[in-house]
Amino acid sequence: MNVKRTFGTILTILGIIGLIYAGYGFTKHDAATRQLIVFGVIGAIFFFTGISLVRNTKDEA
Fold first, then answer.
1. Where are the domains of the chain?
2. Which regions span the lipid bilayer (predicted)?
3. pTM of the model as a whole
4. Fewer CB within 10 Å, N side or C side of the chain?
């Protein structure tokens, strides 16, 4: 079991959840705009970090 690849997958899923939450709040015109921006930025950071961990980790048999 590769810990880096598993951690990358978890970060990617958390990033997707954060981006979906921020997008949903923006479409509903929620009053807490600053909070939604923070969720969107953190979600994007998690998403791209997780994707890069999964892509750059080599498989060892």
1. 1-30
2. 6-24, 36-54
3. 0.83
4. C
